Amino acid sequence: MSPSNFRRALVAPVVVGGLLAALLSVGGSMATAANPHPDYLVNIIGVDNGKNADMTDSQRRTIFVDLYGPSKINLVEGDFEVLDGNATKGSPAELALPDPDVDGDGILDGTYSVSVRALGTRGGSANIATCAELLDEIVDSLTGKNRKSVVDDAAYCTLDEKSVQLERNNGKPTWGDVTEELLSITLEVDIYSDQGNIIGTEEITIPLFDDRLENEFWEYSNDGLRLVQVRFTLN
Predict the structure, then answer these.
(1) What was the pLDDT predicted at 19?
(2) Contact 64, 90 (CB under 8 A)
(3) Which of 21, 78, 91, 116 could, after both became Cys, cross-link 16 (CB 3.0–4.6 A)?
(4) Which of these, 228, 234, 214, lies nearest to 80 by C-alpha position?
């Protein structure tokens, strides 16, 4: 997608019963002198009560997740777009992202970056881990340091230290770069000798949509955090 096709969502809070209930998005490129590249902004909103409405319209820039517990955001290859904004009550949301490794060399191309920040009412935290189903040969070589997803028992998640931890504390919210954490999965695997003996371990990092992965998603584990913004920026 070219920068001219990017659209950035502007946030306008609507308070219902003292809680942030929705964010409105409007179109328009947001390139400035300080930030010359337009962004695509997605708001992840934690809610007490799950949603039942259809949230598959193409203009959506929000994803609703449960305020407490894990939610699943499926990731598919395509232009930036929220395909389904409902990740509540066990229903997976769906977000389209461009391939971050177009040349297929197993390394992020750097064509776009990802940053996040926690907003909304102070208090609460969340963790975002990139997860996927793996080829059998990778699964067979995984060490005990890796963990299975809690929302999909067929999938494994990135190492804990490579997940994204967010907290809404006092002070001005700041953006943090999480490009590697949210566009790839890092695993620890055993290294074998020619004789088939384990001689050590190593970490491998695999970009989203690589042939070694299937059914990629973000496992969003919420503990009372009401609003997270995820910003995608063309480099």
Answers:
(1) 31
(2) no
(3) 21
(4) 234
